[in-house]
Structure formats: structure tokens, C-alpha cells
Amino acid sequence: MHQFTPEVEALANEVLAYSLQRLKSDPPLDGPRTAEDLFKEVGNTITEKGLGGHQALEVFTEVLAKACISTDHPRNLAFIPSAPSEYANLFDLVVGASALYGGSWQEGSGAVFAENQALRWISDLAGLPESAGGVFVQGGTIGNLSALVVAREEARKKHKSITKWAIACSEESHSSLAAAAKVMDVELLKIKPNESECLTGDLVEKALAEFHKDKTKRVFVIVATAGTTNLGIIDDLLSIGNVAKKNDIWYHVDGAYGLAALCAPSVREKFNGVELADSLIVDPHKWLFAPFDACALIYRNPKLAKEVHTQHASYLDTLHDDSWSPSDYAINLTRRTRGLPFWFSLAAHGTNAYAEAMEQTMIVAKNAAEKIRNHPNLKLICEPELSIVAFERIGWEKADYLKWSEKLLSDQIGFIPPSSHKGKSILRFAIVNPWTKIEDIDIILATL
Ligand SMILES: *Cc1c(COP(=O)(O)O)cnc(C)c1O
Quick one: which of 1, 128, 182, 276 has the fewest CB in 10 Å? Predict the structure, then answer.
């Protein structure tokens, strides 16, 4: 059975040497190539006899890896990038070497115990009760969907005659809610936020009153966004939560990006009201220094989620006792213990280090905003609420932004694709990497 031959040993050394080199050196930015172009270089890598480990690794390190943009490059400020800590990345190697099954307590109790402590940290920061809990799922998209399915089930118990259900959220909410609405075959009630793009309880209340005039339809969940993906705006979590309670509607907080900052004292009060949530999500792979792919999905009352998501089959019955099986809390069965790299880094560094790293990214964001305000060619769109800085390049059309962005990447300076705001092209820096220094911002601003 044990086949760790000298050949495997040699490959192990190569793999570890490459991994360590990648972790030790500044990440390359790199960039995309076409499939045709890649095929010309590597051909069909799947062959009857196999390439052998050495050669297959070389295909990856010399060609394929270089056709992938490093999400942890300090001047990759696109979308929401990623900045896993060295500890988290190293522990991912351990997870990969350990054949851990993260679906059930029976098979993975030690790992699940650790994941649950990491979830507890987030849950406590949010002010949820001791009974709260959940699971690390693949990403915010699955996290949102899993929570919303539980929310609808709860609403069905209370309103037996309703057949047409709707999700209420801001127009600025994330595209994954539209995706969830499609999968669930429900309506998406998009509410226009105020002029600062913040959704408030008043606005939700008005929209509900209007929507519920039709007695056949009902909103089963109100989703507030704690840090919109485009501008980083935090909805008014407290007033929206109160409206949800008053109307006896499930309250979900989508904090895939922003709720990471719950651990940062300087902005903690912006999240007041999050403690009212029936469920919330935050992606440690975005702004909590964990590798892909990990979204913390937490329920105030996990029993309700277990009722909905537990899969039943004769061969699974031995798993269903009172123990905590992560599979029971989302749309998933087999799962990688994807929360472990995050747990390890958090356990090893301590939570203070997280607060400090978080504050550091927000200081750079503030400084970047200041520089943009003083830049003759640029116009700041709004003060950064967290760590996203959005701005216009005065006089540029969409094509100018695209051309600039392509050149920035091909010159290997940075990766910043344009976004849009109120119908106009804009640029945005999403700063989640403590290694992004103000000098990196200067290098980018000098090209504008
Ligand atoms: C990124 C994001 C999501 C989706 O998360 P994935 O991990 O990409 O699936 C959902 N909501 C918000 C607010 C986000 O920023």
C-alpha cells in the first residue's frame, strides 16, 4: 500500500521546493493567454502513458502557472483579490496531505472542532448568541443560497397559503443574490438605496408595504449588504434588522467582503445591528487572509438549517445523531476542511494580529483616497468606508479605461480592471492585502 518510492520522494522535494519558493518570493503578477496559445506550447497533457511527475510539474510551473494572475500580488487590486497569510498557505499543504473528510463529525471531529472555533470567533464578533453556528462553504454565492433556502423554509411554515416568494435587497447588492433567486425560482425585489448608496430600514419598510399589497406574494428574507462589492458601502444594519424583526421576516447579512472588518476596532460600530441577523456570511478568502475557497456561513439558530439541509439516505443514516456534521448546514455533502487554513493562521497568530492587519489595509485605503483627492486628473467618488477606493479619471471614456488597464497588466505593474458607477466607467482599488503599501499606490497613480 505504501508507495512512497524514491521517485515519489524526488517529486516531493520538487513540489515542496517550488511551493516554498512561491511563498518566499514576491508573487509574480503574470497574466492570461488564449487556449490556442497554451495548446501550442504544452499540447495535450493527458496521455496514455503519462508525462511523469517531473514533467507534469514543469508544464505547470513553467507555463500554466504563469498564465494565472496572482491574486496575492500587492498591486492586484481587482474585484476583491486575496492575501492568504504564509501560515494559512502552509497549512493548506497539510490539509492537502491529510485526506481529511470535513462533512461529518464522525469522520472529521478534530478538524470540525477547529473549524467551529474559527466560526465562533466570527460569531462572537458579530454578537450572535452562544447557540449560533454554521459551516465553511465554497464561497459567498453558496453561502447566500444556503441561508436563503433556510429562510424560505421558515417563511413557508408561517404562511402556508403563499406561493410567490421574494428576496428583498438593495440594488447595490451582490450578483449572487440574483443567482440565488434564479435557482430558487423566486422574485428579487431590488430596493433603491439612498443617495449614499446605503439601504436603510425606512426604504425597506416602504418597499415591503408596496410589495405586500398583493396578498399572494411575500418577502421571505431581507438581505442587507455589509460592504458592497463595488464601493464598500455598509447598509444600515440596525434599522433594516429592526424592520425585519417587526415584520417577522428572516434577516440575512451578506458580508462576504466587509464583515471581515468586524475584528477592526476603528470601524466596528459601522456594523451595529449585525447582531440581529438570523444568518450571515463572510469570506475569509477575501479579507481575512485565508486561501481560496472559504466562506463562513453562520446561523443564529443552526437547528433550522439542519432541518432543511440534512441529506437522508440509507447509507448516510449512521451519521445522523446529535453530533455536529458540517454537511447538514448548507448545500453540500462531501467537503474539504476548507476552514482549517484560516483556523491555523488565526490560532497561531492570535486575533490581535488580525485586527492590526485589517487596520493596516484601511490606513492604506485612506491614504490612497487622500492622494486621489489631490491628484489633478482624478476625482474621488466617495470616502472609503472600509478598504475600497473608487475614483474617476477625468476626461476618460470606457475605451480609455480599458486601454489603461490592459497596459497596466501587460507592463506587469498591476491588475485593475475598470468598473462602473451610475453608468460611468470608474476605477477602484480593493485593498485587502497588508503587503500593499502606499508606494504601490504611488506606482499606479503615476500612470494616471
Ligand atoms: C464576493 C461577494 C459575494 C460572492 O462570494 P463568492 O465567494 O465570490 O461566491 C457575495 N456577496 C458579496 C457582498 C461579495 O462581495
Answer: 1
